[in-house]
């Protein structure tokens, strides 16, 4: 049975999805918050039948990496060991561990992956290694995918403090579902949405154009001043700042998964002034669009 795409949305980048949490958000919110700082996501993504997928990191990376394969297979090399990762297998690469991995040429893997850090992250990895080594079979995969979908879908809605706490508390459950291989649990969907959530929905549907404060306030039937106060009180960001963060999240995906020129990416996101786009991206992500693309090309 084929798995549903994460978030239930149409794939926009040839079966690939990825989010890099901005460094400013990590430094100013994740690291400083007493709840989030113990375990938090820095990058998250999904590759469907990742033909020609290859990555080599000679010095490792500053985060722990969890890779869950739901179809096909691939190979992971860590000094002294090679691991074949097949359907229903999870592998955990500790931070700063040199490694390389690639999809099988004939039967490329479909993988869900998360990079994570935090005060307790080394203890979590140590517990996993004591229980499984660094590779483990998974019997409750459907639940793991549901949790991934929930985390990814929430991150697509931006980086308010409430959202980050929710996402990274879900991360504990996600990791424990591999550590202890929990059976599927029934979870109720939350149907009711606030004005803020409706506004975020509006933002995500209109990333390709410019939106004024007045427009989105009208969409949720509030005055601009009332809406702005309500939104910032709920998310910690002004509406337009939040909207721009979502635009930069999408820009990262264009830079990561397409060969579009940076000027064209700017236009795709409704920003006519390329120089403004570049400044906004650099301010949000802590790195220029050009440097971000180069960095990703060197680590894929």
How would you portray this structure in words?
Keywords: DNA-binding, Transcription, Transcription regulation. With 300 residues, the protein is α+β, with helices and mostly antiparallel strands. It has 2 domains: 174 residues, Jelly Rolls (Sandwich), CATH 2.60.120; 105 residues, Homeodomain-like (Arc Repressor Mutant, subunit A), CATH 1.10.10. The chain contains 11 helices and 10 strands. The strands form 2 sheets. Strands 1-2-9-4-7-10 form a 6-stranded antiparallel β-sheet. A 4-stranded antiparallel β-sheet has the order 3-8-5-6, with no helix packed on it. A hairpin with a 2-residue loop joins strand 5 and strand 6. Helix 3 runs antiparallel to helix 4, helix 8 crosses helix 10 and helix 8 crosses helix 11.
Residues in helix, %: 40-55%
Strand portion: 15-25%
Secondary-structure-based class equals: alpha+beta
- Give the count of structural domains: 2
Order of helices and strands: EHEEEEEEEEHEHHHHHHHHH
CATH fold-level name of the largest domain = Jelly Rolls
Largest sheet: 6 strands, antiparallel
Runs in which pLDDT lies below 50 for 5 or more consecutive residues are: 1-12, 182-191
Question: Which whole number gives the mean pLDDT?
Answer: 89
Give the strand order, joined by hyphens, for the main sheet: 1-2-9-4-7-10
Q: Which outline best applies? A: globular
Query: How many DSSP E strands?
Result: 10
Gyration radius from CA atoms, angstroms: 19 Å
* CATH level 1 class label of the largest domain: Mainly Beta
CATH architecture descriptor of the largest domain: Sandwich
Count of helical segments?
Answer: 11
CATH homologous superfamily of the largest domain?
Regulatory protein AraC
């Amino acid at each position: 049975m084929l798995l549903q795409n994460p978030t239930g949305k149409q794939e926009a980048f040839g079966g690939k999805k990825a989010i890099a949490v901005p460094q400013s958000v990590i430094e100013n919110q994740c690291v400083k918050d007493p709840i989030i700082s113990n375990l938090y996501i820095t990058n998250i993504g999904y590759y469907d039948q990742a033909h020609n997928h290859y990555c080599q990191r000679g010095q490792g990376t500053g985060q722990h990496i969890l890779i869950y394969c739901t179809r096909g297979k691939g190979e992971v090399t860590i000094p002294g060991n090679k691991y074949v990762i097949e359907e229903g297998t999870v592998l955990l690469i500790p931070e700063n561990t040199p490694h390389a991995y690639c999809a099988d040429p004939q039967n490329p893997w479909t993988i869900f992956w998360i990079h994570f850090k935090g005060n307790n992250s080394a203890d979590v990895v140590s517990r996993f290694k004591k229980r499984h080594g660094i590779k483990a079979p998974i019997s409750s995969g459907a639940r793991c995918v549901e949790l991934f979908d929930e985390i990814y879908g929430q991150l697509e809605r931006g980086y308010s403090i409430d959202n980050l706490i929710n996402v990274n508390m879900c991360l504990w459950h996600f990791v424990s579902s591999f550590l202890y291989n929990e059976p599927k649990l029934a979870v109720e969907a939350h149907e009711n949405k606030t004005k803020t959530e409706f506004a975020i929905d509006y933002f995500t549907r209109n990333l390709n154009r410019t939106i004024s404060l007045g427009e989105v306030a009208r969409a949720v039937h509030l005055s601009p001043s009332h809406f702005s106060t309500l939104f910032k009180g709920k998310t910690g960001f002004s509406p337009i700042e939040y909207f721009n963060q979502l635009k930069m999240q999408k820009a990262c995906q264009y830079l990561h998964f397409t060969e579009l020129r940076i000027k064209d990416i700017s236009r795709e996101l409704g920003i006519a002034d390329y120089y403004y786009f570049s400044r906004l991206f650099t301010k949000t992500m802590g790195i220029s669009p050009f440097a971000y693309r180069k960095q990703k090309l060197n680590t894929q």
